[in-house]
């Protein structure tokens, strides 16, 4: 068995060289941390609103006696540049996930979310922009130089993040997303993205990950240009960088993440009144 450093996928979908500089090796290959951040950040905002909102008046009834959901008191969000304090305070008590805690210790969280969502919505990987969550240990491979494949032990490095995503409540996430959406949209448009709203970008990003095809073990690898290593299956190698990175988490973790994101997408797209 040989060990190599993870190969963060470039924006063009190609693979990085194994002998990348030490600074580059500290960057994470975890593409969906932006989605985790979005979900968790929204979850914290939802919790904050729930705990602090004044009791809503009794709902009126229509002529057909159909219940109407009471309107929630709007949450007054901090300005864009002050969202870090807001999110850290909320998420510190919302989740004990060490992966999430490491990310919350960084700065400019809402802009990180917006940038990563933008990249994933276009099939790209935000691994280079989100370096604090690189899994411990290098990518491990098995086999001979002619038949190299990812060692299943490598997948275990992603278990913590997969558990974090899988533990989230889709209904709470949907309610939460609507709370922080104004600031997220503001950060997204500051990137110069004016043709789509952040709602459209989030829906597209989620769908990109959900559409990632299954890759059964063993996931075989093949040498690429220079000192690079990519998927031996040409269909997998041709996938967008975001999907290729999710596959590297392993079949079990990828399935858990995709199942949760699928339910979250449905919940977000369901009208709040329902």
Pick out its properties.
274 residues; mainly alpha; 3-stranded antiparallel β-sheet; two-stranded antiparallel ribbon; 11 helices; 5 strands; elongated; disordered N terminus
**What is the terminal-to-terminal distance?**
53 Å
The low-confidence parts are: 1-34, 37-71
The order of strands across the largest sheet is: 1-2-3
Strand content: 5-15%
Task: Please tell me the overall pLDDT.
Answer: 74
What is the number of helices?
11
User: How many domains in all?
Assistant: 1
Task: Please compute the radius of gyration using only Cα atoms.
Answer: 20 Å
**How many DSSP-defined strands?**
5
Counting copies of identical and different chains, the oligomeric state is single chain
Q: Tell me the series of helices and strands, N- to C-terminal.
A: EHHHHHEEHHHEEHHH
| Estimated structural class | mainly alpha
Q: Could you give a short account of the major beta sheet?
A: 3 strands, antiparallel
Query: Helical proportion?
Result: 40-55%
Which descriptor suits the 3D outline? elongated
């Amino acid at each position: 068995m040989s060990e190599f450093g993870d190969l963060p996928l470039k924006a063009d979908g190609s693979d990085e060289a194994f002998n990348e500089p030490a600074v580059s090796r500290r960057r994470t290959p975890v593409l969906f941390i932006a989605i985790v951040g979005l979900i968790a950040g929204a979850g914290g905002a939802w919790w904050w609103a729930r705990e602090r909102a004044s009791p809503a008046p009794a709902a009126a009834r229509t002529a057909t006696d159909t219940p109407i959901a009471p309107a929630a008191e709007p949450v007054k969000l901090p300005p864009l540049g002050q969202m870090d304090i807001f999110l850290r305070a909320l998420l510190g008590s919302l989740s004990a996930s060490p992966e999430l805690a490491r990310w919350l210790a960084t700065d400019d969280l809402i802009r990180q979310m917006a940038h990563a969502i933008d990249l994933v919505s276009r099939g790209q990987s935000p691994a280079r922009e989100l370096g604090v969550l690189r899994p411990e240990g290098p990518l491990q491979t098995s086999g001979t130089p002619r038949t190299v494949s990812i060692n299943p032990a490598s997948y275990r490095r992603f278990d913590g993040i997969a558990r974090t995503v899988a533990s989230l409540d889709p209904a709470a996430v949907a309610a939460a997303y609507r709370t922080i959406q104004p600031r997220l949209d503001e950060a997204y448009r500051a990137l110069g993205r004016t043709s789509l709203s952040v709602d459209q970008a989030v829906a597209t990003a989620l769908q990109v990950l959900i559409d990632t095809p299954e890759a059964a073990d063993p996931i075989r690898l093949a040498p690429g240009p220079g000192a690079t290593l990519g998927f031996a299956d040409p269909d997998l190698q041709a996938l967008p960088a975001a999907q290729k990175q999710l596959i590297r988490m392993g079949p079990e973790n990828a399935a858990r993440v995709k199942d949760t994101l699928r339910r979250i997408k449905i919940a977000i797209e369901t009208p709040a009144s329902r």
